[in-house]
Automatic annotation (TrEMBL):
Keywords: Lipid metabolism, Methyltransferase, S-adenosyl-L-methionine, Transferase. Belongs to the CFA/CMAS family. This is Class I SAM-dependent methyltransferase. GO terms for molecular function: methyltransferase activity. Signal peptide: none annotated. The keyword Nucleotide-binding does not apply. InterPro entries: CFA/CMAS (IPR050723), Methyltransf_25 (IPR041698), SAM-dependent_MTases_sf (IPR029063). GO terms for biological process: methylation. Coiled coil: none annotated. It comes from the Bacteria. Residues 49-151 form the Methyltransferase domain.
Length: 221
């Protein structure tokens, strides 16, 4: 019997098999906030940063170019997307700075990358909208476990679209559903539950079309 993760992997591969080559071109028209997130991520010299749901590695490559002083890691459950990520990475000079693994977000383990300590930053970029509802909290908890004390968890994804008329919000929701994407309010609840309120920053983007969240892990954890 297939595990939930393997069933999800097959679903992701079916979805992206025909889209992977045009994914970055098409998604730039509606995955808003990704570049703002990349600008926001702080990378100190020697920092280790991990993206959960790396996709084509578009974000990770841009982040590594912007911050060459760090080292970068990415995981994804879709072999189709990781194959595309590897091809994109091969066209850069960043192969020694970026490592990729095929695994589910909820099964992330920094030690599988040969690291002796958790990541200094982890982030989700338009990933959690695509996974089953029952996997959301385990994925967030996994990211938090693999984050060093004092590190930061970053998130950007579809928001509640509260700045739009209800009929427009419903239209957006139906359209996104065609791509298997959904806004999940429980994501924000789970992120806000990770740390004291003073360590959490919520930033609506584009009238709530997207939402950016940062959560700093207390140094005492």
């Amino acid at each position: 019997m297939n595990s939930p993760a393997s069933a999800q992997a097959m679903a992701m591969d079916r979805l992206y098999a025909g889209q992977k080559r045009v994914y970055d071109i098409s998604r730039k028209y509606y995955l808003f906030g990704r570049d703002q997130l990349i600008e926001k991520i702080h990378v100190a010299p020697g920092s280790n940063v991990c993206e959960l749901g790396v996709g084509t590695a578009r974000n990770l490559i841009l982040l590594a170019r912007r911050n060459p002083q760090g080292r970068y890691y990415g995981i994804d459950l879709s072999a189709e997307m990781l194959g595309e990520a590897a091809r994109n990475l091969a066209r850069t000079r960043l192969a020694d700075k970026i490592a990729l693994r095929l695994t589910a977000a909820e099964e992330l383990d920094y030690r599988e990358f040969g690291l002796d300590a958790p990541f200094d930053a982890v982030y989700f970029s338009y990933c959690l909208a695509m996974i089953p509802k029952e996997s959301i909290v385990p994925a967030i908890e996994s990211a938090w476990r693999n984050l060093a004390p004092g590190g930061v968890l970053y998130y950007v994804d579809f928001g509640p679209m509260s700045g739009f008329p209800p009929r427009v919000s419903k239209m957006f929701a139906r359209w996104l559903g065609l791509f298997g994407a959904h806004y999940h309010p429980e994501v924000v609840e789970a992120l806000c539950a990770l740390a004291p309120t003073s360590n959490v920053e919520l930033t609506p983007l584009y009238r709530g079309y997207a939402l950016m969240v940062t959560v700093r892990k207390p140094k005492s954890d």
